[in-house]
Amino acid sequence: MTVLFIGLAGVLGALARYGVSLAVDPYTDPALFPLATLLCNFSGSFALGWLSGGGALRLGWSERKRIAVTTGFVGSYTTFSTFGAETVHFLDSGHGWMAAVYVMTSLWGGLLLAWAGGRLAEARKSGGEAV
Questions:
Q1: Cβ-contact 56, 120 below 8 angstroms
Q2: Which of 44, 47, 80, 95 is an S-S bond match for 90, by CB 3.0 to 4.6 Å?
Q3: What are the pLDDT digits (tens) for 2-25?
Q4: Spatial separation of the C-alpha atoms in residues 120 and 44, rounded to whole Å
């Protein structure tokens, strides 16, 4: 049954990611900078950090629900494969500097947001103030 919930959450995560692209891409040029992918990866990193850091426990979620949302929804919402393909596209089109900016922004931004989400969940879990 858990596998079914992961799959259903994965469908929702993929649709949410597509929705972000529909909302963002008309206002940006994904060929110049893939903002929709970056936003999905940043918000997904924060969400995964928060849920894994105690946010799911704070919400009273069962282990099944936590796994479905983190593995299914967040796993399909964030998109490492698209990040890789977009980076290669920058390199292939002679924009090595943009590839470097995108890789560093994605890596450090994702790590920072995952850390911040986890710290926020821990602070709330222990009754402290949010960081």
A1: no
A2: 95
A3: 999 999 999 999 999 999 999 999
A4: 15
- CA-only gyration radius of the chain, Å: 16
| Higher local confidence (pLDDT), 125 or 61 | 61
Known binding positions for Na(+): 75, 78
Residue recorded with tokens 């206002």: 27
- Note the pLDDT of residue 123: 85
The residue whose two tokens read 């929702």 is 12
50 within 8 A of 118, measured Cβ to Cβ? yes
Q: Which of 73, 25, 21, 53 is nearest to 126 (CA)?
A: 53
**Which residues fall in the annotated binding site?**
75, 78
